[in-house]
Amino acid sequence: MPKKIRKIRPKPNVLLNISVIILLANFIINTAAYQKQIINLKNLSSSLEQELASQTSLSKLYEDEIEKRQSQEYLEYIAKKHLGYLYPNERIVDIKVGEPK
């Protein structure tokens, strides 16, 4: 009777397989965490851009107000309205509109 030739299979290295599985799981978990972090950073970036736009427009308003307050017309308006100053020979006429008595 002829002898059966038996193929010799190498034994799988269990430790190597477990290491590969752990590395793949770690890669998947880290990738998911990084994706979540990227989404959070994009949301933060969007809100910061909106805040920047808001602050830029507010800054423009303040600059315009400062420029306006340094004008001669504004200073005259404040002097007349709140301080009661007038130019020489200038008179203020106060006209009240309403029901006659």
Supply the key terms.
single chain, 101 residues, mainly alpha, rod-shaped
Q: In words, what does this structure look like?
A:
- With 101 residues, the chain is mostly helical.
- It has a domain at 14-81.
- It is 65% helix and 0% strand.
- It is built from two helices and no strands.
- It has helices at 14-69, 72-81.
- The longest helix has 56 residues, at 14-69.
- The protein is rod-shaped and about 140 Å long.
- The mean pLDDT is 88.
First-residue to last-residue Cα separation = 139 Å
Radius of gyration: 41 Å
Instruction: Please state the average pLDDT score.
Output: 88
Range of helix content: 55-70%
Low-confidence stretches: none
In what range is the share of β-strand residues? Answer: under 5%
How many helical elements? Answer: 2
Give, in order, the helices and strands.
HH
The main β sheet shows up as:
none
SS-derived structural category:
mainly alpha
Assembly level: single chain
In short:
This protein is mainly α and 101 residues long. It has two helices and no strands. The radius of gyration is 41 Å and the shape is rod-shaped.
